[in-house]
Design the sequence.
């Protein structure tokens, strides 16, 4: 993706942390010569050799998986908080804009066997059930329910390249206090989170 230099985040640990916390992404590849996208959790992990990977699964009813080919590149898109930025919050006249965080991950895909898929499902469920009031465990699901694993295709993506755009009103540090204050007053989840990130970024 196009990223102006001052919006590029090359702090790989910060970006990995973002991917871990914002793992619901978009998987994009080609199906019958046309772009195809599926919205799914794409969990950051490492393989047996210590390489960074993304792990996920999709329904066998989704034709996208039939176009998974060894060594063919796929794109995974992750979005973070975003918010409109009014130029009325600036000290000088300027056009309005949009602050956002977005990460693109490129890699090659590999289909997993059923054992590996099951292991990935344990990790996925345990991660997101951790904060549930009444957490469930795959161990407690019936054999009938677990037969649904036959209807999914699990895969991992070996990460080749990560591009991260953090547009946080860089170059307008003198306007940050007002921008942050105005974002907090909007009271939308995106604006509040953007204000929090800008506060932390300016420390």
Sequence:
């Amino acid at each position: 993706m196009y990223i102006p230099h001052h919006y590029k985040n090359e702090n790989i640990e910060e970006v990995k942390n973002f991917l871990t916390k914002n793992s619901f992404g978009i998987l994009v590849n080609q199906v019958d010569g046309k772009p195809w996208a599926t919205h799914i959790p794409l969990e950051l992990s490492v393989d047996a050799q210590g390489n960074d990977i993304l792990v996920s699964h999709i329904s066998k009813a989704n034709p996208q998986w039939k176009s998974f080919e060894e060594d063919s590149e796929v794109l995974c898109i992750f979005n973070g908080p975003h918010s409109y930025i009014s130029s009325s919050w600036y000290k000088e006249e300027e056009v309005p804009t949009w602050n956002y965080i977005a990460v693109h991950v490129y890699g090659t895909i590999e289909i997993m066997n059923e054992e590996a898929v099951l292991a990935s499902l344990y990790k996925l469920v345990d991660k997101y059930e951790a904060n549930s009031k009444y957490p469930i465990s795959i161990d407690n699901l019936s054999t009938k329910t677990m037969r649904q694993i036959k209807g999914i295709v699990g895969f991992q993506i070996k990460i080749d390249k990560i591009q991260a755009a953090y547009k946080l009103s860089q170059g307008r540090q003198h306007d940050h206090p007002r921008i942050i204050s105005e974002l907090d007053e909007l009271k939308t989840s995106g604006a509040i989170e953007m204000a929090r990130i800008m506060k932390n970024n300016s420390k």
